[in-house]
Write the structure tokens for this entry.
Amino acid sequence: MNILVVGGGGREHAIAYSLSKSPLINKLIVAPGNPGIETFAKCYPIAAEDIGGQCKLAKNIKADIVFIGPEIPLVLGLKNKLSEIGINAFGPSKEAAQLEGSKTFSRNFCKRYNIPQPNFKYCSDLKTAKDQIELLNGYCVVKADGLAAGKGVVVCDTVNEAINASTQMLEDNKFGDAGKSILIEERITGIEASLFAVSDGETAILLGTAQDHKRANDNDQGPNTGGMGAISPAPALNEELNKNIFNNIIMPTINGMRSDGIPYEGILYAGVMLTDQGPKVIEFNCRFGDPETQVVLPRLSTDLVDIIQNTVTNNLENTSIDLIDNTAITVVIASKGYPGTFTKGIELPSLNKFDKRKNIIIFHSGTAKNDNEDLISSGGRVLSVTAIGDNVQDCRQKAYDIVEEINWDKGFFRSDIGKL
Ligand code: AMP
Ligand code: GLY
């Protein structure tokens, strides 16, 4: 089978790595890919958002399935465009991807289907926003409706803070069109966890769970990032909670989307908060998480190609998914300054010596090669060091030993990933 993976970060490295283990693969192509992926798959320098370019490539390489990694091409409708030229894609359609692409769509959808979530108010003008903020005494969450590269959510303690955030979005155009309308949400409390389900529109199966570490610094301090590390399974979840979330959040979402005429196919990422009143939806994402994929997929013992093939042919009913009963932890090494400004193009130490290390995988998140073919940094998050082990302690030890050995002094990392 010929598979094209769209994307070029740590998540796509982990996806391609899993796919590459399958005996069903004939050609594995990734666009744009990265130097880590290049060691085992052919990469083409086509941006993930270049819908026309990706369709052309998929056709040229005679792709049987296109696995769309990031949210932007999904929200832009890459699946729909591929379908027009007769190519199957793993991932939701443009319409279904609104579950991530529009927070208003997602909240209204959950409300209609009684899926547990915080109360919210839609605001397209500052007056409505201010009234709602005052009603909540400023203890609220302000969210830009559209995609804002993970920066469109401001968790507020005071009226002033919330009004400032709303003003920046609604009047100062901080996130462009994505912030033209906003939500003011009730601020709920509890431990957060992420669940990853795969669906063909009808059947859904839980693929795994993880806990992300979103703040830049130890002890959840500092600014929000895309994720500085993750652990799988999510320590806060257990069989019973997984069942509860599957039955009360995931299945009602899949069923609701189908009844609305927009069946949801692909990965459904449910970010939940475990509150005193039970699990509630914080957000839905329409794809795998980054860096969560770097801990979820290495624990999968079922062939990923089988799973995606059964999804695109609406045959998930006959698929069983097995996870290895172990733990995985990934520690992200980021450029100093991230998520603010940082310098790109800094040389990285050679990583070849880690290739043969057992139960260690170094995923590339933001790397490139310079004219001399040296490995350099090219993004905020640069590497994602995954360790697989029998327990949390064992994984932490292994992952941090490697991070110390890489010893990249232009980067930083959190030292408490997976710490219980
Ligand atoms: P998101 O970008 O939607 O994942 O939001 C980023 C973070 O904001 C989440 O991981 C939560 O910690 C927090 N958050 C979002 N919505 C709420 C809410 N309604 N109540 C409390 N915290 C929230
Ligand atoms: N790590 C959070 C995300 O992928 O959205």
